[in-house]
Amino acid sequence: MLKQKQIAFCLCFITYFCFWKLTGYACIFLYLTGFSCPGCGMSRAWLFALRGNIHQAFFYHPLFWTVPVYAGLAFGKKQQIQYKERKARHPNEIFYLLGIAAFFIVYFYRMANSSVLQKNIQNGLFYYFVSKGIEVYQVSFGIH
Ligand SMILES: [Zn+2]
Q1: Domain extents for the chain?
Q2: What are 3-42's pLDDT values in tens digits?
Q3: pTM for this one?
Q4: How far is the CA of 132 from the centre of ligand 1 (A)?
Q5: Is the dihedral of CA 126, 129, 135, 139 positive or negative?
Q6: How far is the CA of 107 from the centre of ligand 1 (A)?
Q7: How far is the CA of 78 from the centre of ligand 1 (A)?
């Protein structure tokens, strides 16, 4: 089970890295929609955190410090077997739900207040295709 998780994690990381190098975008959501996602700024936050600049790290993503916590929860294998046997609700589930809630609360706050996040729908690939589709429709039906 743990090996499958590690392989999936590595495949996600490789896919993400290839996407980043091919498109120049570090975020698939931003690339498609023109809007930053709840995780945007995380890489920059960690680059600053690893250099010891915690203030800048919090500026780029206030929840950057949660990554090792959740990685520990996701890859920690000690309790998982015990809870499966007891058929009880795993205590990590509440931490996952709290983490997701925290990311979305912080996301909406940052979308309203932070200069780090982008919110221009016209930069997204969806917008490009929809506007091209409208153009083709207008040309083919003689509407201008
Ligand atoms: Zn993003």
Answers
A1: 2-140
A2: 888 899 899 989 989 998 999 988 999 999 999 999 999 9
A3: 0.74
A4: 25
A5: negative
A6: 10
A7: 32
